[in-house]
Design brief:
The chain has eleven helices and no strands. The chain is mostly helical. It is elongated, with a radius of gyration of 17 Å.
Length: 179
C-alpha cells in the first residue's frame, strides 16, 4: 500500500528488463503516486519493448507531473517506433518537460529510429531559452547522428555553436562537425 514500495518494486524490474512484466507495469502507469508513475515509466523504457509505446504516449498526455512526464517521454524514445518519434516531435508542453522530449528523441536515435520531424525538433531544443541539460542532450543527438542530413539546419546549428554559453553544447556540435 505504500507508494515508496511500489516505486521500488517497479525500479527492480528495470534491472531485470523482463518484457513479460510489461503488462503488469502498464497497470501502474495510472498509480496515484507520482513517484510510482515515474519509476514505472523508467522500467518500461528499460525493457525497450515497443508494446509499451502506446501506453506511454497515452499516459504522458494525461500526466500532470513534469517529472513523471519527462520520464515517460524519455521512455517512449527507448521503446520507439516512428509513431513514438512523431509523437515526441510534436510534443510541446512546458519547458520542464523539454528535457524528456530531447532525451526521448536521443534514445530513439540510438535505436536507429529517426524522422525529419525529430531532427527539426532537436534543433528547436538547442535554442538559448532552453535549459542547459536539454541543450546538451539535443547537441549530443547531433554529435552522434551521422545518418540524417542536417544541411537544412546549418545556419541555426552554426549560430548555437558560435554563441551557446555551454561548453558541452559547443563541444558536441563541434564534434559532430556541424559547423
Amino acid at each position: 500500500p505504500e507508494a515508496k514500495y511500489r516505486a521500488e518494486a517497479a525500479i527492480a524490474f528495470a534491472s531485470v528488463q523482463d518484457t513479460n512484466m510489461v503488462g503488469q507495469l502498464l497497470l501502474l502507469l495510472s498509480d496515484s503516486a507520482e513517484i510510482v508513475r515515474e519509476s514505472v515509466a523508467y522500467s518500461l523504457g528499460q525493457t525497450g519493448h515497443t508494446s509499451a509505446e502506446t501506453a506511454l504516449i497515452e499516459a504522458s498526455k494525461q500526466e500532470t507531473s513534469a517529472k513523471a512526464t519527462s520520464a515517460m517521454l524519455e521512455s517512449i524514445g527507448k521503446c520507439a517506433t516512428t509513431v513514438g518519434v512523431d509523437f515526441l516531435s510534436s510534443f510541446y508542453g512546458k519547458q520542464s518537460t523539454d528535457y524528456g522530449v530531447a532525451a526521448g528523441l536521443f534514445r530513439a536515435d540510438i535505436k536507429g529510429v529517426q524522422t525529419e520531424n525529430g531532427l527539426k525538433r532537436i534543433v528547436e531544443l538547442l535554442e538559448p531559452n532552453q535549459q542547459e541539460t536539454t541543450r546538451i542532450i539535443a547537441s549530443t543527438y547531433l554529435a552522434r547522428n551521422r545518418s540524417q542530413d542536417v544541411s537544412g539546419f546549418t545556419k541555426a546549428i552554426t549560430n548555437v555553436l558560435r554563441n551557446d554559453n555551454s561548453e558541452f553544447v559547443r563541444m558536441n556540435l563541434h564534434y559532430g562537425e556541424i559547423s
